Amino acid sequence: MDDTTPTPSPTRTRRRRWPIVLGVIAALFLVIGFVSRTPSPVGHWTSAEGRDEFHDTYRTAMADLPVPDATLDVRTDYGIVRAYRFEGEADRAEPLVLLPGRASASPVWADNLPHLLRVGDVYTLDLLGEPGMSVQDRPIVDDDDQADWLHQTLDGLPESEFHLVGLSIGGWTAANLATRQPEGIASLTLVEPVFVFDDMPLGTIVRSLPASLPWLPKSWRDGFNSYTAGGAPVEDVPVARMIEAGMAHYSLRLPQPSRISEEALSGLDMPVLAVIAGESVMLDSAAAVEVAERALPEGTVRLYPDASHAINGEHPDELAEDIAGFLDAQE
Fold first, then answer.
1. Are 50 and 117 a contacting pair, CB within 8 Å?
2. Assigned CATH class of 10-328
């Protein structure tokens, strides 16, 4: 780690922790998506006013990121995927592609981008079928469809190979693609991925249910979000307002992701970096480390003992340093 990098104060760390984890808790909204279905087969805004509220909060949250060098809307068979391109400092042939967690979209990477841009060029994507600027217009019914839309998105970008970096459900999305359509994937970095190295604990699923209901008091969601972030207090910051607006006004129509098998993981032929939080409530960290070390033929496993599921907001510089070292080792 660069000794000149300022050490964030505990207050600042707690402040940025909760909105990050709010966006990456992954399967929180999967259950509610099944119990509150509407006739619409695709994800959609429940009202024009709700969509406008989200867009306002999204624009405010994006102001915490560097200004993108390009904004791309990539057409796929399942809808239009919003991508932002940021030019990095390092001369690396393959750019990083960042996949966020559930309901968080590109602004969730605000703390990470200044560090990751030292690693190379970066794209951020808003996941299709989630609150964000991507627009779903065809049903995504299974894991194959999830792989298809991401493969088509990468195929629509100018480069031919990419380093995928997935956070929480974004980690599952990246791993799901790699096990089905690995073409063009130079490497995988899976940060606290759900449904990859371990199942979600039952206790977390049970505690998530009240937080997944947008019509219940906000305090119920705040309590769960604090729980997933290692007890950090909930603060009102731009990315949090964006996530809350998405939770309240967007109706998901996505399939329950299948747990990726060890057999599928063992078949990966690209380098994989697995980053696990020791204090995660979204997986059993010891079990996840054991599976990752056993199943990944070209795997590097990093355990952050004191991190929660909000690991990318808690350790942005260390995470970027690990990704840089991992990629440098492949050259």
1. no
2. alpha beta
Give this prediction's pTM.
0.86
Whether the CB-CB separation of 254 and 43 falls below 8 Å is answered with: yes
Burial class from Cβ neighbours inside 10 Å (0-12, 13-18, 19+) for residue 182 reads middle
In angstroms, rounded to a whole number, what is the distance separating the alpha carbons of residues 150 and 241? 27
Residue 230 identity (one-letter amino acid): G
- Which residues fall within 8 angstroms of residue 267, CB to CB, at 6 or more apart? 179
Contacts of 116 (CB under 8 A, 6+ apart): 88, 96, 98, 109, 122, 165, 320, 323
Extents of the domains making up the chain? 10-328
Give me the pLDDT at residue 218, please: 58
Strand ranges inside 10-59, DSSP E: 44-45
> 270 and 187 in contact (C-beta within 8 Å)?
yes
> Could you read off the pLDDT of 96-143 as tens digits, one per residue?
999 999 888 999 999 999 999 999 999 999 999 999 999 999 999 999
Biggest CA–CA distance in the chain, Å, is 55
3: pLDDT strictly greater than 60:
no
Q: What is the DSSP secondary-structure string of 212-233?
A: T-TTS-HHHHHHHHHHHTTTPP
**Number of Cα atoms under 13 Å in the Cβ half of residue 124:** 27
